[in-house]
């Protein structure tokens, strides 16, 4: 009863409106009145429902006004309007009235809306409204935007009419929660009325309501059946494997192809492969640690992005006032570390092999092996994301509908590893751009590898020696040139997150996801890999450096790395504007500096110049974590979504530290659980099947004679077909050759 009275207060305020309408300035009153009559004329189900609830509320108010006793409030006219008052009370409101908490996302009360027992079904929805802020004269309303970080609404100057703002991740859309009649979700009149009433300043992108986006498609059922079958196969295979091993039959079965195919899916086998802490003696041991640390860094960047897009986005910008925050906010170079590791492994494997078997060619094996895991994950994402359309999902600027739609339209571009040539908002499963660029660089790598190989083959002729270095240097120069040109041409910021330019999708599209911008660390990695092979094969002698030399290089690379991260401090928080020259200088040279600094860490660890850093980074604990990092990377965007999906309100940003503890750490953990599943069920089985297939084909062709080739093909895949207990290197399966 008391609650019912509270709800009465809201219509009370609304009901004052007609009496005060003449106090409202003419410019606002006219469209308001016009809108009112417009609404009254409409006769769709949605508007009939709205009018009905409004009339009942008004009647309740007029009745309640005359009441002298509490019993009078039990009148049907009042109680019948309870549902309407609940609808109104469930409407979104700012989570705080403090200016510092200024928010464009107003959440309401989803639970109240859910429990309404009215004459029609109600739904908790978010109205996503894109507003052309350039058309609003804040000064005339007495507002000053100077209190905002960067002195403006982020993303403000992209008020370009040519951009369809609805299909981008617009952080400056207004997101207002409403408890609406279910019939309104699809009613286009709401959008039309708002657009007309505001003279086109505001436009509705979407009315996004809680509940599955659409009926599960045939694909959803197909995927689930297929995936369940895969699990069933894995469980069956594990049981068979267990029984055979227990009865000592596995020795006898070992050589048979059918048995190999069956056990390829065995979960215990694959798990022990994955979690083995054995490392091949000739691998580069510190890379797993570097991969894992980089992975957590990347994940944290995405966590901040998702959580910052909540009901108090300004707070994320305020964090940039603390210089230490740059470590987390300026995570743009993190991915470059991945590229360095990739390039390094590709060239390391290549030169090692060339050394032992000069006829061996470069084969795109690893890429083929990783593709099933990747594509199956995309299928999983497409099947399940539309089903996860709950309270968090309806209010976020991350347009998952769009990303899934992109997958449906362009999944084949993903399969061909070409989707990064699209704009960022056309990506299917956003983090997939990384896999694309990585693969593209892998395709381009032979160019440089062969150039280096031939230039170093005949050491006697000095001119020839230069082609390899020349190829790499021209690659770097080309990349620098491209960065400078694109930055100047599109007037791009130096980094993606700054108080003034956030939301500038051009930066992402033109620079961030393009291979010609990203090739610098990859090329650095190639040189490093070559160098390591030469030193290990003792074709190049390196003398033990003196202590002061090592100290100097360590100091220098630390300073470079720190400069890359912290030099953007004033630029990021909007205190200083950088000229095109500065921006493009940072854009290209930060990448070079970072690549060199990380390359030094790898070299120092490998050649034992790193002291305690070496023992830390080469600890066996990192091996499984590094090995799983490919699948974990694949999964992290989805698990982040899953975590937030469990919430009953929009994300809320408190601080970077709090986000790290409450979001990043669980997401890293969940990603690894998922990565384990994916590796066990898809990645390892398919790579084993691939080996078996190659074996079979070669056997058939050569009639069992040329066992050398079988051997070469196997070592190509780094799989020796032994159990890890045999001390074999199965654990370095292909993952090694990707990040
Ligand atoms: C209140 O609702 C009941 C049940 O829906 C209906 O029978 C009754 O006529 C309504 N009363 C008024 C005054 O609208
Ligand atoms: C999300 O994308 C879809 C498909 O392009 C679009 O119709 C919708 O308006 C977008 N939603 C938002 C909130 O921008």
UniProtKB/TrEMBL annotation:
<dbReference type="InterPro" id="IPR052728">
    <property type="entry name" value="O2_lipid_transport_reg"/>
</dbReference>
<protein>
    <submittedName>
        <fullName>Oac-7</fullName>
    </submittedName>
</protein>
<dbReference type="InterPro" id="IPR006621">
    <property type="entry name" value="Nose-resist-to-fluoxetine_N"/>
</dbReference>
<dbReference type="InterPro" id="IPR002656">
    <property type="entry name" value="Acyl_transf_3_dom"/>
</dbReference>
<dbReference type="Pfam" id="PF01757">
    <property type="entry name" value="Acyl_transf_3"/>
</dbReference>
<dbReference type="GO" id="GO:0016747">
    <property type="term" value="F:acyltransferase activity, transferring groups other than amino-acyl groups"/>
</dbReference>
């Amino acid at each position: 009863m008391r609650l019912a009275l509270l709800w009465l207060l809201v219509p009370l305020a609304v009901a004052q409106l007609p009496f005060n309408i003449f106090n409202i300035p003419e410019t606002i009153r006219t469209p308001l009145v016009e809108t009112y009559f417009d609404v009254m004329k409409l006769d769709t189900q949605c508007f009939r429902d709205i009018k009905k609830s409004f009339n009942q509320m008004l009647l309740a108010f007029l009745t309640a006004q005359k009441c002298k006793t509490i019993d009078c409030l039990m009148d049907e006219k009042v109680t019948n309007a309870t549902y309407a008052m609940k609808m109104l009370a469930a409407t979104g409101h700012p989570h705080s009235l403090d200016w510092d908490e200024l928010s464009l996302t107003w959440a309401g009360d989803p639970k109240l809306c859910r429990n309404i027992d009215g004459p029609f079904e109600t739904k908790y929805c978010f109205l996503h409204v894109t507003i052309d802020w350039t058309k609003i004269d804040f000064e005339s309303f007495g507002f000053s935007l100077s209190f905002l970080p960067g002195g403006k609404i982020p993303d403000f100057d992209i008020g370009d009419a040519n951009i369809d703002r609805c299909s981008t991740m617009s952080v400056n859309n207004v997101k207002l929660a409403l408890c609406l009649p279910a019939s309104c979700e699809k009613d286009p009149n709401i959008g039309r009325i708002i657009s007309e009433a505001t003279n086109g300043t505001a436009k509705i992108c979407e009315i996004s309501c809680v509940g599955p986006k659409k009926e599960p498609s045939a694909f959803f059922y197909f995927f689930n059946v297929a995936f369940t079958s895969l699990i069933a196969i894995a469980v069956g295979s594990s049981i068979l494997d267990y029984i055979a091993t227990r009865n000592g039959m596995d020795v006898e079965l070992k050589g048979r192809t059918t048995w190999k195919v069956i056990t390829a899916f065995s979960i215990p086998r694959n798990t022990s492969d994955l979690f083995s802490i054995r490392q091949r003696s000739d691998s580069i041991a510190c890379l797993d640690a570097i991969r894992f640390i980089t992975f957590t860094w990347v994940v944290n960047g995405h966590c901040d992005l998702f959580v910052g897009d909540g009901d108090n986005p300004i707070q994320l910008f305020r964090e940039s006032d603390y210089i230490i925050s740059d470590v987390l906010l300026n995570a743009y170079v993190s991915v470059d570390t991945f590229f360095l590791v990739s390039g390094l492994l590709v060239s390391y494997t290549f030169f090692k092999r060339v050394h032992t078997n000069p006829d061996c060619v470069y084969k795109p094996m690893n890429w083929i092996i990783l593709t099933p895991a990747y594509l199956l994950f995309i299928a999983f994402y497409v099947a399940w994301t539309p089903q996860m359309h709950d309270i968090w999902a309806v209010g976020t600027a991350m347009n998952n509908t769009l990303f899934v739609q992109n997958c449906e339209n362009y999944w084949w571009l993903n399969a061909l590893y070409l989707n990064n040539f699209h704009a960022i908002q056309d990506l299917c499963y956003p983090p997939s751009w990384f896999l694309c660029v990585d693969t593209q660089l892998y395709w381009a790598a032979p160019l440089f590898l062969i150039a280096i190989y031939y230039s170093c083959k005949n050491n006697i002729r000095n001119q020839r020696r230069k082609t390899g270095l020349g190829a790499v240097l021209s690659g770097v120069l080309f990349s620098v040139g491209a960065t400078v040109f694109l930055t100047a041409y599109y007037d791009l910021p130096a980094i993606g997150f700054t108080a003034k330019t956030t939301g500038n999708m051009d930066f992402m599209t033109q620079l961030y996801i393009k291979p010609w911008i990203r090739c610098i660390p990859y090329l650095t990695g190639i040189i490093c890999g070559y160098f390591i092979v030469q030193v290990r094969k003792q074709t190049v002698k390196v003398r033990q450096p003196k202590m002061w030399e090592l100290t100097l290089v360590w100091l220098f690379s630390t300073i470079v790395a720190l400069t890359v991260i912290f030099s953007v401090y004033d630029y990021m928080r909007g205190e200083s504007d950088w000229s095109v020259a500065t921006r493009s200088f940072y854009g290209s040279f930060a990448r070079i500096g970072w690549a060199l600094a990380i390359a030094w860490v790898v070299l120092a660890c490998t050649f034992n110049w790193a002291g305690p850093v070496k023992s830390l980074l080469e600890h066996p604990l990192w091996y499984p974590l590094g090995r799983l990092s490919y699948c974990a990377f694949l999964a992290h965007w989805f698990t982040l979504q899953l975590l937030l999906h469990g919430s009953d309100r929009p994300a809320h940003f408190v601080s970077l530290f709090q986000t790290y503890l409450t979001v990043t750490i669980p997401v890293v953990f969940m990603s690894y659980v998922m990565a384990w599943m994916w590796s066990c069920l898809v990645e390892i089985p398919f790579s084993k099947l691939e080996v078996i297939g190659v074996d079979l084909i070669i056997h058939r062709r050569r009639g069992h004679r040329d066992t050398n080739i079988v051997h070469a093909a196997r070592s190509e895949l780094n799989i020796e077909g032994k159990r890890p207990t045999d001390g074999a290197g199965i654990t370095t399966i292909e993952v090694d050759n990707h990040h």
